[in-house]
Amino acid sequence: MIYFTIAFRNLLQAKRRTLLLGTAIGMVTFLQVLLQSVGNGYMENLEEGTTALTSGHVNVLGLYKMSHGKMTPFMRDGDKILELIKQSAPEKIEKVYLRNGGPGRLIGDFNSRVALVQGIDYDEEVGLQQTLVLAKESSYVEGGRDEAFGDISKVKEPNSIVLFSSQAKTLGVKVGDEIAYRAFSMVGINVTTMHVVAVVEDVGAISSFFTFMSRTTVAEAMNLSEDVSGNILVYLKDKYQSQEVMSKIRDTLTENGYSLTEYEGLSIVKRWGTVERQPWLGQKFDTVTWQDNVKDAEVIVKSIDALSFVLLTILSVIIGIGIINTCWISVQERSNEIGCIRAIGMSSRAVLGLFMLESLMLGVLFSTLGALLAWAVVLAVSHAEIPIHSQALSLVLFTNKLNLSLFWQDMVSAIVIFSTITGIAALFPALRASRIEPIQAINAAH
Amino acid sequence: MINFSFLLLLVKLSWRSIWSHRIKSLVVGCIIFIGVYLLVVTDAMMSSINVSMEKSLTWSVTGHLQAYDSKARDKFTMLGMVGSLGAEPNVGRIENFAKVKEVLQSHPNVKHVIPMGTDYALVFRGNTIDKLVNTLREADKNHDEENFELARKKLTDVFDKLLIQQEYRVGIVRDQEKLKSEIKILKEVSENHFWENFSKDTENNLMFLETKLAPMVKDRDPMFLQFLATDVDRYAEAFPYFKLVQGEMIPEGARGLLVNQEQYDFVFKDRMARTFDSIENELLVKENGPIATNYEIQGWIKNVQVETQEWILDLGAIESNKIKQALQSYLKKEDSLENLFVEFLKLNDENFFERKDYFYQEIAPYIDLYPIHIGDMITLNKFGHGTSIRVRFYGTYTYPGLERSGFSGFYNLVDMTSFREMYGFVTPDKQKEIDAMKESAGIENFEGGISEDDLFGEGVSIVQDAPEDSYKAFEAIEDIQVVNIDERMKAQEAQRYTQAQIENGPSLSAAIILKDRSQLEQTIKDLNKLIAENELEIQLVDWQQAAGFVGQMVTVMRVVLYTFIVFVFAVATVIINNAMFMATMQRFTEIGTLRAIGAGRGVIMGMFLCESVLLSLISGFFGLLAAFVFINHLGSVGIVAPKPEVQFVFGGQRLYPHIMLDNIYLGLFVVFVVSVGATLYPAIYATRIPPVVAMNAKE
């Protein structure tokens, strides 16, 4: 305990030095934590977007080939498959939903856009009901009212559509308007007039591509037979068990005589061409986990990681040099003092420890401050809901709003890393201090 | 007045203290060295990226500036739908290009003004049954039994596949009636007696095939074609990198299509051939490593093996036989075609080039390497909403040196007249048609045909309130369409449009190429004034904005990297500040002595600053030198773009960075600011030391 007191007093005595070095350490920790939160926020956006809107934790997709080289995203006997999936791991599966859908074109007053239409059973999909939030009219109509209009549950009605606010904005429509939906159906293109029953808040940039209708509406527009659907979304009680549940589902389907595509751990979007050119006809099923779906985007997180690694290495080197220098001088300055405490019986190991402890305390104190500051910034940013205007940035970050997210583990690891670095940097000067002989030190002072 | 000897003294003093505080000097020097090195390397890389991007974009598509409709709802980008997350941007149009050109061209720094319009078209590859029935008819007419039999075999092949497809379709489609009748017909023709009795009533049977069976096959999968519509001749003049590769130039003033060589080879070409090409390309870049260690190539080989069976299905019976023979003689064994092919595709570093050559020499002659051929008439259907046009595919083009960069591999060139027709703008031909209609129908104002809403409203096109006698106009259209379509096509192809006709009309945007690029800022100001004076309804964007999010991406990268560097320097400043403070403390006695013997505060201050600047200059110089050596090394070997996406930013397969004077200035400036900034406070602190205190101080 006495060592702590001595070390702390030393830090207090060299106030300016402590403050300067501390600022540097704090800044670096701050940066590290902030970068982490950017990466986390990005993954969160993506995960939320994909699992809630389109894929669930495990997605079972029907692939149907009517001729070689032409694959369609359809599933026959969806209800039967649904039951099989439910039974494959009943204790781990929370909810299972059947959907259908396909690409189409939405045509509004100003503009048109392509969209992947999702046919849903609104009453069933409790998760989606929670994710979709009505958007204020002002967010998609210039000069619109600050109120939200519409009723998402009306999506059940025939020829009704729910749009995301960014879509409503580009199409130039509001709740109550009509738009044309050109479905790429099984027999050419089919145009249907749709009523916009609700406009909901965007869920990341990914929502630009999706839109919701009822399953029956989609089936009619695409000219699909009654028992044809597209994919099954499986939500789990623990999302990290996705791999395990997926293999159970695969086993169950295989046992029941259904055939599956080879699992490659990649989303079907990436493998579509390859699977399409495989020599089989008829029905197959493809399975992916939510982790597979976000894997494509991990490039971004990896590059953020790589960039921050390089940056923080450089900064650590600079700080390391600074600390070595400071400690070195401080050892010189205090050789007198060291001599004294050595003379009154302190071991050389204790001197080494004292110097290391001093540096370590400096590191812990200021990296904690830096981490806390970063935490405050993250809180402030999440609270402020800062919109991203740069298209490039929103495309890269997969969101329209700046989202930072922080886990306490990230803060702790940053504090540990930078305290360790400061501690280690002090090792060399501290070793030198520990080698000072009592008599030598006292002599040097005169 | 500071004289020279005083300066010299300062430098001497500083040098002495740099030397006597070696460790501190080394620390500060190292930090500055790292900072300068990082800054200059990053800055040089970023400006090199910018320069090569600008080069690849301005000299392939965008020009220095793009002018577009000032009333457009959306921001203009040459990337169109790709750049706006699936939405079709509404960029309006330039009503009269000729007028815009006249005004802009009057500026002395404007070299060229070129009309442009970019969009997507679908290309259908023709109806297989129609084609084969035609061959049957010809062969029947010429009593050419061999060809008749060949075409018949191919047809039955198609029917068999179609039957399978329709049977699978039963499980999916809601409208079962139609499907079942189709299946019935297909079963009928696949039975022997259909062909046995074929010659009894050849004409009727041919008709039967054409009317009942041909509609069942949709045109084969359409290809997506991004096109850039422009005044092709003027474009070729204005963009000096443009070079024709195969075929010929579109005749002056004619309609036509030029396909980008990159797309022709890497998108359109047969998949199998493309795999061989891609592997070869990958192997040409040494950094990528041989097949044995290159997972990407191994993946391609694996995939192409799996896809072989399906690829073979596309071949005709005769071709399959020939290829089988070729493979048998190469591999010296007998097996099914599929197994032989999979065996042949077991490619490795030893056999790759030999097999590639064999593929091109012995197998390629039996396959259709390209879905469209130079000289073909091609139907382009504007994606989304618009009309179809037919144009001749005259040749392929590229931009040597910029092949795989930016937008240069993105677009295929189409003439302006075809483009206007696709968009439904009034073209000279259409005007003639409308005039003819008006005359024959006797209508003054014909409102049924081409209204603006039709073109740009992206029509929920419900015909509303047609004028009462508009049916006469429709009758007139029918009259005109009765004229033989072939003849019309021929006439249209032979038609040459004058320069005035090409320019007098709408375009989506106009590319502006300057004589002197360095005057860009000033020219934009002048042009904006000209635009306002002449009341043109256009606005200007530079190449970077015209590049859409690709251009923005570079800005984002720049901002991120510079933020990082600012952080590095901020931390460096704090550390240097600390080091300097400690040095100052150690020099209390020295400073006290100096002050006691009459040195003023200015001298102390000057001494500190001089020391700092001197130290920074030395370490900054080494930092610069290291950066220079590094960048020069990279500049000579080039940085390989690891992925095609990166080629977009690198402006080619490799980036050759080089240091520019600006980078060096920036490096020196920042070093100066940081070193002086970090020293200032300790120096001021030192000057405040009274001589007595300083001399008494022990520390």
Q: How would you characterize the overall build of this protein?
A:
The complex is a heterodimer of chains A (446) and B (699). By secondary structure, chain A is an alpha+beta fold. Chain A is built from 16 helices and twelve strands. In chain A, the strands form two sheets. In chain A, strands 1, 2, 4, 5, 6, 7, 8, 9, 11 and 12 form a ten-stranded mixed β-sheet that branches. Chain A is elongated, with a radius of gyration of 31 Å. The model of chain A has no long low-confidence stretch (mean pLDDT 85). Chain B is α+β, with helices and mostly antiparallel strands and 699 residues long. Chain B has a six-stranded mixed beta barrel, surrounded by four helices. Chain B has a two-stranded antiparallel ribbon with strand order 11-12. In chain B, a hairpin with a 5-residue loop joins strand 6 and strand 7. The two termini of chain B are 35 Å apart. About 5% of the residues of chain B have low confidence. Chains A and B meet through helix 2, strand 1, strand 5, helix 5 and strand 7 of A and helix 2, helix 5, helix 13 and helix 25 of B.
Give the topology, please.
The complex is a heterodimer of chains A (446) and B (699).
Chain A (H helix, E strand, L loop, with lengths): L1 H12 L1 H41 L2 E10 L2 E3 L2 E2 L1 H11 L4 E15 L4 E9 L5 H6 L28 E5 H7 L6 E8 L2 E13 L9 E5 H7 L6 E2 L1 E6 L5 H14 L12 H9 L5 E8 H6 L2 H36 L1 H9 L4 H37 L6 H7 L10 H18 L1 H8 L3 H8 L1
Parallel strand pairs in A: 5-9, 6-8
Antiparallel strand pairs in A: 1-2, 1-11, 1-12, 3-10, 4-5, 4-7, 4-11, 7-8
Helix pairs in contact in A: 1-12, 2-10, 2-12, 2-14, 3-7, 10-14, 10-15, 11-16, 12-14, 12-15
Chain B lengths: L3 H17 L1 H41 L2 E5 L27 H9 L4 E14 L4 H14 L3 H25 L6 H15 L1 H5 L5 H12 L9 E8 L1 H7 L4 E5 L9 E4 H8 L2 H14 L10 H12 L1 H6 L3 H15 L5 H8 L7 H12 L13 E6 L5 E11 L13 E4 H8 L4 H14 L10 H5 L13 H13 L2 H10 L4 H5 L5 E6 L5 H14 L4 E5 H4 L2 H38 L1 H9 L4 H37 L1 E2 L3 H7 L3 E2 L5 H27 L3 H6 L3
Parallel strand pairs in B: 3-8, 5-7
Antiparallel strand pairs in B: 1-9, 1-10, 2-3, 2-6, 2-9, 4-7, 5-8, 6-7, 11-12
Helix pairs in contact in B: 1-27, 2-25, 2-27, 2-29, 4-5, 4-8, 5-6, 10-11, 11-12, 11-16, 14-15, 18-20, 25-29, 27-29
